[in-house]
Specification:
The chain contains five helices and eight strands; from the N terminus they run E-H-E-H-E-E-E-E-E-H-H-E-H. It is α+β, with helices and mostly antiparallel strands. The strands form two sheets. It has a six-stranded mixed β-sheet. It has a two-stranded antiparallel ribbon with strand order 5-6. The structure holds a DNA duplex (12 and 12 nucleotides).
Length: 159
DNA sequence: GCCAACGTTGGC
DNA sequence: GCCAACGTTGGC
């Protein structure tokens, strides 16, 4: 019996890697996460075929722009070993990698993005602990419950 | 560009 | 182990 699918939200800056970039390449290794909590969600929580809300931070309109899918189990982020990468980590070794990632596959782009402002308007239903809207939360990979997932996607075509 | 909030680092 | 300093995130 296969375990129930889980839901996530993953942030990216459109200047860095956008939903259109993901649509173009199809599948992308989610490099560059350097936060332990976010790493743990990818390494310990994610399973192939989990669904992902693709969020643009530092965008003209921050919000959810598309849907993606977890396309691999976790493996070491290769950029931690690359001395010339901005994600290089001198304390990571091949034997004991510090940073892990998953591959993320494009599913679809939303008809219209769901702006953060509209998401905030539903904070009561989403719950105050929802890490996306919790004050000061900066997690770039975070879990979404199935109820939150349903609610968020119901906002896709809201006015 | 500003800055609040938070995580990490490193001296002690 | 404490905590000040620093760097980063990310909305506005």
């Amino acid at each position: 019996m296969s375990p129930r699918k889980r839901y996530w939200l993953m942030k990216s800056e459109p200047e860095d890697f956008s939903i259109d970039d993901l649509a173009r390449v199809g599948t992308e290794p989610w490099t560059g996460v350097r936060n332990y909590q976010a790493r743990n969600f990818m390494r310990d929580g994610m399973r192939v075929d989990d669904e992902v809300l693709f969020y643009h931070s530092n965008a003209d309109v921050p919000g959810i722009y598309g849907i993606a899918r977890v396309a691999s189990t976790a493996y070491p982020d290769p950029t931690q070993f690359q001395a010339r990468s901005k994600y290089f980590d001198a304390k990571a070794t091949q034997e004991t990698p510090r940073w892990f990632l998953v591959d993320v596959a494009f599913v679809r782009k939303l008809d219209a993005p769901i702006p953060l402002s509209r998401i905030r308007a539903h904070s009561a239903e989403l719950g105050e602990e929802f890490a996306l809207i919790r004050k000061g939360a900066r997690l770039s990979v975070l879990p979404v419950t199935s109820a939150q997932w349903k609610l968020l996607l119901s906002l896709e075509n809201a006015r």
